[in-house]
Design a protein that fits this description.
The chain is built from 13 helices and ten strands. It has about 375 residues and is α/β, with parallel strands linked by helices. Strands 1, 2, 3, 4, 5, 6, 7, 8, 9 and 10 form a ten-stranded mixed beta sheet that branches.
Length: about 375
């Protein structure tokens, strides 16, 4: 999946990002032992999905304080990036992997690609995000996959926008929702998991049968759903999208404000907070890392207050540390999802393939 992700703004942030942050000078080889008298590598490599981004000055400060130069190796969406690390297990392409989330976590852990590490600052992370008690991975961010709605459409039609999963199968919302393919899209899979969390192993199938009967449209990915079919986004308006409901992220409304031309006073889109699935992304020290010490320092940086407070406007996700403050854009135009749906990572790992296969048969 792409959480990598992932959210409405990550696609924009990724487009503005660069593949390598900081100088990538010659120190990419293996750490040499002190016995040889040769210097250790001062380059630390972060393998990530394409949506990773950080303000250049924030990264530079870490490099100056730590003495390491950070190289970022972007590797497609999270699923593709994880597949490559599983294939190169024991001889990884970098030192740290960022971007595995709770929908793929058990797969990563079962394949043993990470070395346990208790990050400095882990005690500041909210306990609900620590899903691996062996600390093979460290929580870095969270975000909520939710149905977004076009405020203007519902105001013009004098219809209350939906707020819950139950609402979406009601007659007044027939032919209004577009979602992404759960087999090919991170938010699409997240929305499927929201239904599993809400209705259980048997109930979610009946729910999707009702959604199908109520005219849900399924497209391949987030870009097509949000920027082409959704009537509420800037891209959707240009493309003359006619679906006023879309599966996206709780952080999408602040993005519409940030990139609006001209910038609107209020977000043109809203969030149905009773439709959400919470995604948590992690970083882990790769087993066989050439620069293990540099990797540990980098993970410490990812949970530092400096990075956590920079992250929302770079990747449009939420901090996981207790004292990190959200930017005004998020507090003014975003929403707080109090009770998102959750499914245990081990349950997802056990059932994901069959769930997606069944889902595909239901929506055809």
């Amino acid at each position: 999946m792409s959480t990598t992700r992932k959210i409405a703004g990550t696609a924009l942030a990724a487009a503005l990002g660069v593949t390598t942050l900081g100088a990538c000078g010659g120190g990419e080889g293996k750490d040499t032992s002190e016995a040889t008298g040769a210097p250790k590598s001062k380059t630390v490599t972060l393998v990530s999905h394409d949506s990773f981004n950080v303000t250049a000055t924030v990264l530079k400060e870490f490099e100056q304080q730590s003495g390491y130069t950070v190289k970022v190796l972007k590797s497609g969406d999270a699923g593709a990036a994880l597949n490559q690390e599983i294939l190169t297990k024991g001889s990884p392409r970098g030192d740290v992997f960022f971007g595995v989330d709770n929908t793929l976590l058990s797969r990563a852990l079962d394949n043993g690609i990470f070395t346990p590490y208790d990050a400095k600052g882990l005690d500041t992370v909210k306990p609900e995000f620590v899903l691996d008690q062996q600390h093979r991975v460290t929580p870095v961010d969270s975000g909520d996959i939710c149905v977004n709605y076009d405020k203007a459409y519902f105001a013009d039609k004098r219809i209350a926008p939906p707020q819950t999963l139950d609402d979406l199968v009601k007659p007044e919302y027939k032919n209004l929702l577009v979602t992404e393919n759960a087999a090919t899209s991170s938010p699409g899979l997240g929305f499927l998991l929201a239904s599993v969390g809400k209705y259980g192993e048997e109930g979610w199938k009946d729910y999707w049968s009702k959604l199908k009967a109520n005219g849900v449209e399924v497209v391949d990915g987030w870009e097509q759903a949000y920027n082409e079919r959704f009537s509420g986004s800037a891209g959707g308006k240009k493309a003359k999208g006619d679906r006023p409901l879309v599966v996206s992220y709780a952080s999408s409304p602040p993005v519409e404000v940030l990139y609006g031309e001209p910038q609107p006073a209020d977000a043109p889109t809203g969030v149905a907070t009773g439709t959400c699935f919470r995604q948590v992304e992690f970083a882990g020290l790769l087993k066989g890392a050439k620069n293990e010490e540099g990797g540990k320092a980098l993970i410490d940086f990812l949970v530092s207050k400096k990075f956590q407070e920079d992250m929302p406007l770079q990747m449009f996700v939420n901090p996981v540390v207790k004292d990190a403050k959200l930017p005004e854009l998020f507090t003014k135009h975003g929403v707080v999802v109090e009770k998102p749906e959750n499914v245990a990572p081990e349950t997802i790992a056990k059932n994901r393939e069959q769930w997606v296969k069944t889902w595909s048969s239901l929506v055809k």
